[in-house]
Amino acid sequence: MKPALSLGFCFSTVLLAACGGGTGTSVNSGVVTPVIGLTLSGTAATGMALSGAPVNAKCRTGSGTTTTASDGTYSLAIAGGVLPCVLQVNNAADNKKLHAIAINAGVVNLTPLTDMLSTRLMRTDMSGVFSNPDIAAVEKAVTVESIKQAQADVSLALSSYVDVSKLTDFYGTPLKAATAANTTAGDAQDKLLDALKAKMTAAQQGQALDLLARASAVGVVVDNAEPGFKPALELLPMTATVATNGKLSFSAVTNYPANVRYIRQPVKWTVVESDGGSISLNGEYTAPDKAGVYHVKVQREDFPALSAVATVTVGSTPAPVFTPYLNVAAKSVSLKPGAQHFFAAGINYPPGIYYIRQPVTWTLVEANAGAIDILGSYTAPMQPGVYHVRVQRDDFPELMVLVEVIVS
Fold it and tell me: Which range is the signal sequence, renumbered to this chain (predicted)?
């Protein structure tokens, strides 16, 4: 399995009383021993505090309800309450619900990140979990170690939009949210929630939740694929030329066994030569400052025997004053049949050049891949499968990026 992000920290009292303080609970094999009587508190926010929002908790024994203050904070005492608990807050602005899971008394926030983390832990829609909590299932799924891995998975799923990896504890990190009366009051975590809201539409957040509920872990080798399935890997382009310190975008075309989905495309990008430049998780290559012939390698993580190598010639001529580029936020997206998705291309422009519209063309590789318009508004087909969207610069047609679309 792909190793989780390094989380060299001590979880808050919500997660691990053994870190110090706490309420007399103990940890046994990663599962927190229930405590009799408890108080839960925290902040409900989406980048702006959820003011006057109802917070409900359902526990192994006992339940409770309260309302958030104007700054989104809440405190809920459950007499005779026994952990674990599942929490829910209703956001009146969009009538959507946010969730969290408490396996220890103390601070537990309610944010889009805690909702995604809880979804990943339980591998299902959290509204269903809250409506009829299966405490045995919660105890089995939610441990100190599983929280670490699930948080790493959420960070990975959101990496194309915003970097949340530096937030070490989604549930228990103290959160100060901005309010209607003081829109600049938010702390660093609150600004992270602002960025998430700005960069992800409600539909994209819904797609992320669905993916987190259903996706397999990246990096797990598939030993027994479906009968007759033959894994494939194609690298584009196979040869390329770029100036020193220039940039290139590589794409990998893959296929998948039926009903298998991943948080991201299960490929690993590397530069073969130690001095050959660098390449990102998304296949964005940056050439070194020394001319030469170098190689970019892509390898499937689910079928590691499959790999491909591209040759990159880095010219000695310095990069021109203007070097065009083309990129996309993610090389792989997962959608439900018929779902809509808005693709966006990142490009730059020569000095003094202006266009009526962004000079890119969106097309579909497969004839049955759905529909896409000139602005990148895509509608997935009703038939499940793996499809591809191509974006190409009109002014520099040699620049092209392929995006994988998994419909299931």
Answer: 1-17
